[in-house]
Amino acid sequence: MSIFSKKKEISTNEFAAGLAIVFNRMRTRNIETLKIFLPEMIEKMSKDELMKLDFELSIFDMFNITHCCQLLVGDEEVQYKILDFSHKNIYEELLKISPLAVAAFQNESKIKYETYSNAINSSDPIWNLCKEVWRRGIPIKSGRWI
């Protein structure tokens, strides 16, 4: 019997809390994962560059969770409840790391969500979305950000 054949009802808050856990797991593994594929580049990055990359990838992770929820949860009212609670959980965790960074993260997220939404709704969504993330988070040899 497949695990997917079993159905269990969960509350909106339980689902949102699960999304926040997924975000935290992705966030803590972003740089480690990139280091597997791009070891020389990651090792040469300064602490500030790694922080900028982590910041960008964290926003991208949160966008992915938000976008998938919007695609998969048909009821808009339920979507809002899930996403509001999920974002609240995520921001509470980020507050523990750096209270000052939360406001910047929220402001930057709004801008990047729009950019990512435009990319995903374009004629070549995967390419354009990857290009946006890469352009904003990965330094080139000259030290400038793509």
Task: Please count the helical segments.
Answer: 6
First CA to last CA: what distance? 48 Å
- The strand count comes to 0
What is the residue-averaged pLDDT? 79
Return the string of H and E elements. Answer: HHHHHH
User: What is the overall silhouette?
Assistant: globular
Radius of gyration: 17 Å
Largest sheet: none
Strand content of the residues, in percent? under 5%
Low-confidence stretches: 140-146
- How many structural domains does the protein architecture include? 1
Helix content: over 70%
User: Which class of secondary structure composition applies to the elements?
Assistant: mainly alpha
Describe the structure.
With 146 residues, this protein is mainly α. It has one domain (11-137). The protein is built from six helices and no strands. The chain has helices spanning 12-37, 39-44, 47-72, 76-97, 99-120, 125-137. Mean pLDDT is 79; it is low at 140-146.
